[in-house]
Amino acid sequence: MSLKILVIRLSSLGDIILASPTVLNLKIGYPQSRITFLTKHKYRHIVKMFGTVDEIVLLPKSGNFTEQLSLLKSLEQQNFDIIVDLHSNFRSSLVRTVLTAGQKVVYPRNRSARQRIVRFKDFTAPDSNTHTIDKYNDCLLQLGLAAPAFRPVFQKSNERISAEHAAVLIAPGAAFKNKQWPVEKFAEVAIKLHHSHQAKIIWAATDKESTPDKLTEQISKDNLRLLSNHPIAELASIISQATLTIANDSGIAHLSSAVGTPVISIFGPTHPALGFQPRGLLDNIVQVDVSCRPCSLHGKKICFQKEQYCFTRIEPLEVVKRAGALISVRSMMTKALFVDRDGTVIVDKPFDSDPANIEFENGSIEALKKAQESGFKLIIVTNQSGVARGYFGIDKMKKFNSALEQKLAEQNIKIDAIEYCPHYPTGTVAEYSFRCDCRKPAGGMAEKAALEHNIDLRRSYVIGDKLDDLNLGRVIGAGYFLVLTGQGKENSQKLQEDRGESRNLVCNNLLAAIKKIETLENQYVQS
């Protein structure tokens, strides 16, 4: 029987986006669950982009008691098994308290730690510098679940970044005026990036922010796109095709992270130690040390200084420098194939560490050659819990991997990296027996390879014979396929039971998966 789970996060834009990894973790932990998400009407499109929510329930726009009561009655009729309160305010507490459920878990806001940071600038206090996502994921620990996803991630987009010129999206707005770096400085950054890097500029503002005249005077219409109050779902699609985003400490910064576009976020009166900083793999924060900072939790408080030093001391040239570096990195990024080892590339012989026993799966040699010829970097990602379990030492495992790499080299296949995870939470070797961020489906191995080999995870694919391989793809925002070799047949049945979509995700073997990917890549090029 599938579990019925209610997740509550009513607002605001950034906080809801930061809830996306926790909802994904719920779906991974309870694959047959039905997840209902309660939020405000204006955020429904954002929650839909999670790709993991089965039903979105909206809070009544008015505070009418009858409407509120009607909502509670309709929710109670669903007989939820679990309620996850990621808001932890009066209204969410009311919903959580009134409804019946077998388990109820609450986001630990730890207001006192944040107040110590704001009031006393105490950055060493317990729980300071803990990211909001990690606090959300603490709810999963209360349920006894793992939390492999710890970055915002929306479902994979089919759009592609234009390789001809960098496209920089600039969003000068923020929830509060006091959190906005001066719009003229944003314009100066835009102009400098256009002239120095031939960047096309997408200026995404609300009607509250004026468009500086010098922007339209110094950047031609062909290289400047002005957006005003653009619908959030369409804006997400535009950001996903941009090279990078430059924004304040705002919801747009988190939106950029979630669609896989690096963001440079400018922090003034707020501070990353409060736990709301963007968390994409390549995200940057620009800030300066000022003794009065942070002056408030959300940046509402009006500055008492003669000028807002936390912003006026941030120079446009520093932002341009960071942006230029990101543009350079993004221009050289490539796609990769993250492929499982045992049961996908080679025949799975459980906990075998003898190189003499290496046997390739049917079609895997040809598959890797085709992927290499198609421009994919080849990264093997393998869970090797046998080390933590004491079945073999890490040196023996490394020798096995080296032998595999050599055998593939003899077939003119260059493996760019073999990433391994030797950990297991309940192992017998203390050095490796703990919960880590690299054991699939967590993204640690893929992210390590991405940083070392300049890989764009959103353009990449994960292939393996286990559901953990598919879930790794979901966690890093890549495409993913299950092969029927190894343990694939058994897991194909589980996939059908859990998600009802095995037909589109299952391939006979690695070669069949590569052919399917080639077809997809050709469709992208043609579109």
Structure description:
This protein is an alpha/beta fold. The protein has three domains: 4-142, Rossmann fold (3-Layer(aba) Sandwich), CATH 3.40.50.2000; 167-331, Glycogen Phosphorylase B (Rossmann fold); 336-526, Rossmann fold. Helix content is 39%, strand content 15%. It has 21 helices and 17 strands. It has helices at 13-18, 20-29, 44-48, 65-76, 90-98, 111-120, 132-142, 183-197, 213-218, 232-240, 251-258, 309-312, 316-331, 364-373, 386-389, 394-409, 444-453, 467-476, 488-499, 502-505, 510-526; strands at 4-8, 34-39, 55-58, 82-85, 103-106, 167-171, 200-205, 224-228, 244-248, 263-266, 284-286, 336-339, 377-383, 417-421, 461-464, 479-483, 506-507. Strands 8-7-6-9-10-11 form a six-stranded parallel beta sheet, sandwiched between helices. It has a six-stranded parallel beta sheet with strand order 14-13-12-15-16-17. It has a five-stranded parallel beta sheet with strand order 3-2-1-4-5, sandwiched between helices. β15 (461-464), α18 (467-476) and β16 (479-483) form a beta-alpha-beta unit. α2 (20-29) packs parallel to α7 (132-142) and α14 (364-373) packs parallel to α21 (510-526). It is globular. The relative contact order is 0.09.
